[in-house]
Structure to design on (568 residues):
């Protein structure tokens, strides 16, 4: 009896917390996305209030107006923001994979004693502030920054490159910030891999590259999938990196939402942007969960 | 994988780590720069550290941040551990799918959405924004990270130990506290540390949920960076990096020593 009560409490406390602070807020966002903009505080007029009771609410469900969504669809700024976010996130994910895979591969092949140290060195920047790491790039990338000084000194370029305030800086920022998220899952799949499989492939006549491609790369697929999604999903909604490193031409939906909310005080449109962003991300999130379930099964 | 470290492997590891660490190292070096210009070296100086400790705005923000992080990490660890116990041990109850979804979803949710939705909640229930709204928001997203970390440890825990304790007269609660908790404790601690650093680090969610008088350090750094780079920010960043690095190193050493005392390899 007492045991059942304790068990119920163990479930109930985090459950109720998440219902109240995670699920309920989303319902409120949805409600506000369907509301009208109003000049006042808060700056929206709800379409219905809970005080009217269920019948009144159900009555109004049929009359919801989707004007905020129609507004988003009609303005190319928002559509372009979504498309450009997806493009930036995609390109950055590919670049992160190109840098992260060799790093993870090299780490997995390091001598036994060295591997824990290398692993810790990958995790350490993750514990260091994200904002600080993005900020550090400003000093490197700007016109009179360290990168340009270095390249001028080398004689590779004759005039400073314009990198900061362009999409290039955003790519660098995302690749840099999310690199550990790519390296860790790939490393853990490669580390578990049985090297004799590669040797067998070589014995059967594969070239070095052929064996890598047919065995190592294939076996690393779950890690690559997890890494790509761990980079892609947060990159789509990224705000800090495009804001600090990108320029006025950098369109990303997270930044657009922020501007609508803080600069334009348009809460209804900001909510509608959030709802659509969520819908856009549901597909990769579902893919991610499936991939995780599959790798959990494979690991057992 | 057997160790066959080719030159190619060594090069990619060295280049990868150079990329990861160079910006941080440069930031630390330039925090000791005499010049106000961030990119021109004009001699060693600690004057920006001096200026930092005169800057009341930054110090206040740092104090708010530390308090938010301490409270939110602690509460999130308790709630997250309960959530992990639920995930691992209570495989059948009504609404479990929803519960699992709610634990994992915040991990991948863009911060702008989490921030916006929590703010709208606080506005809807007329809860005054400030210190407590930021703390509540931080508890919510970090409890999910704690749950995942603790869950991974709890899965491998041998439940028969707990049953043995109960056979010897412990109540289920006592058995959990005396047997299970010590075993999963390293995971609980790393969950707490993760929650603490996530809270220290967070800019976006804090910006949405904060109100007057509750400016956190990332919010302060962010506004200063937008106004123009001040060398004091390099000093703040260096101090934060030093604190986090020391913390992680101490945690690793403690973990190693514990593992050695227990006579098993670290991380198992």
């Amino acid at each position: 009896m007492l045991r059942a009560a304790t068990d119920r409490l163990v479930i109930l406390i985090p459950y109720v917390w998440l219902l109240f602070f995670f699920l309920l807020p989303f319902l409120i966002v949805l409600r506000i996305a369907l509301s009208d903009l109003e000049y006042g505080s808060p700056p929206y007029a709800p379409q219905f209030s809970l005080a009217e009771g269920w019948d009144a609410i159900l009555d109004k469900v049929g009359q919801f107006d989707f004007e905020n969504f129609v507004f988003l669809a009609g303005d190319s700024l928002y559509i372009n923001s979504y498309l450009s976010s997806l493009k930036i996130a995609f390109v950055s994910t590919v670049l992160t994979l190109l840098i992260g895979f060799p790093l993870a591969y090299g780490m997995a092949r390091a001598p036994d004693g060295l591997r824990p140290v290398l692993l810790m060195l990958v995790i350490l920047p993750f514990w260091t502030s994200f904002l600080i790491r993005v900020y550090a790039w400003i000093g490197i990338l700007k016109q009179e920054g360290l990168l340009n000084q270095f390249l001028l000194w080398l004689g590779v370029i004759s005039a400073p490159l314009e990198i900061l305030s362009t999409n290039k800086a955003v790519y660098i920022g995302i690749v840099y910030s999310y690199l550990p998220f790519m390296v860790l899952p790939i490393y853990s799949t490669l580390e578990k891999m049985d090297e004799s499989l590669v040797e067998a492939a070589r014995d059967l006549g594969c070239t070095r590259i052929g064996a890598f491609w047919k065995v190592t790369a294939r076996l690393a697929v779950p890690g690559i999938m997890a890494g790509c999604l761990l980079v892609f999903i947060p990159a789509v909604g990224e705000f800090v990196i495009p804001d600090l490193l990108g320029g006025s031409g950098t369109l990303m939906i997270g930044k657009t939402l922020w501007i609508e909310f803080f600069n334009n005080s348009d809460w209804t449109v900001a909510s509608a942007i959030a709802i659509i962003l969520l819908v856009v991300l549901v597909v990769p999130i579902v893919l991610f969960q499936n991939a995780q379930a599959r790798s959990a099964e494979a690991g057992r | 994988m057997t160790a066959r470290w080719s030159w190619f492997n060594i090069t990619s590891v060295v280049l990868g780590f150079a990329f990861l660490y160079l910006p941080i190292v440069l930031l630390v070096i330039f925090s000791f720069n005499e010049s106000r210009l961030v990119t021109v070296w004009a001699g060693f100086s600690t004057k920006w550290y001096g200026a930092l400790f005169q800057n009341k705005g930054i110090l206040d923000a740092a104090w708010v941040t530390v308090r938010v992080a301490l409270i939110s990490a602690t509460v999130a660890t308790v709630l997250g551990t309960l959530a992990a116990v639920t995930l691992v041990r209570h495989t059948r109850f009504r609404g479990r799918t929803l519960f699992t979804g709610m634990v994992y979803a915040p991990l991948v949710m863009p911060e702008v959405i989490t921030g916006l939705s929590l703010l709208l909640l606080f506005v809807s229930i007329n809860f005054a924004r400030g210190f407590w709204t930021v703390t509540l928001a931080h508890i919510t997203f970090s409890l999910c990270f704690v749950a995942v970390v603790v869950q991974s440890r709890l899965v491998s825990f041998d439940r028969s130990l707990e049953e043995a304790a109960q056979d010897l007269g412990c109540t289920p609660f006592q058995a959990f506290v005396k047997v299970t908790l010590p075993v999963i404790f390293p995971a609980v601690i790393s969950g707490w540390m993760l929650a603490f650093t996530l809270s220290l680090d967070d800019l976006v969610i804090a910006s949405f949920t904060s109100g007057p008088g509750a400016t956190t350090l990332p919010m302060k750094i962010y506004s200063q960076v937008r106004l123009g780079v001040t060398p004091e920010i390099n000093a703040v960043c260096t101090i934060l990096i030093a604190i986090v690095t020391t913390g992680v190193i101490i945690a690793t050493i403690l973990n190693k020593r514990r593992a050695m005392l227990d006579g098993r390899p670290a991380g198992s």
Observations:
- DSSP finds 14 helices and two strands in chain A.
- The longest strand of chain A covers residues 36-37.
